[in-house]
User: What shape does this take?
Amino acid sequence: MLPRATSRLSFRWWTSDDVELARALWGDPEVTRLIGGFDWRERLATELELQRTHGMQYWPIFHGDAHAGCCGLRPKAEGVLELGFHLRREHWGKGLAEEAARTVIAHAFGALHASELFAGHHPENDASRRTLSRLGFRFTHDELYAATGLRHPSYSLSRPPHAVSTAC
Assistant: This one.
């Protein structure tokens, strides 16, 4: 099950045919600079595996017909999912990360019944810090992120008492 589309964004699953989309997003050193950089082929394989094993991934997002990046979830701990988003450079500063994340948060607490969400960011990534703050995440601790070798600020968002399941 996918998060619902917004007025500006739609979500879909990554497929093995998405080589060019994956390369354009994760092959851009500016996009991956603060997340430790990685091989875009491995990242696509990871997303496909997350779909197969957990029914979730960092779903590709589209602004109209344009691939804007990805936003999604991965398991972190029992009842806890990790929220993440990566945007292509040409879509930075348009509010798309926050819009996509709000939809994914509703999906996590509704259809997926998560009790809590975790998120983190590179210490120098002020844009992600501000986005997480606007989304209601609260700082909890600094956590070592092996890909960068740095302690990244880490945040939590608890399931609101009024969260309703959107499962059919």
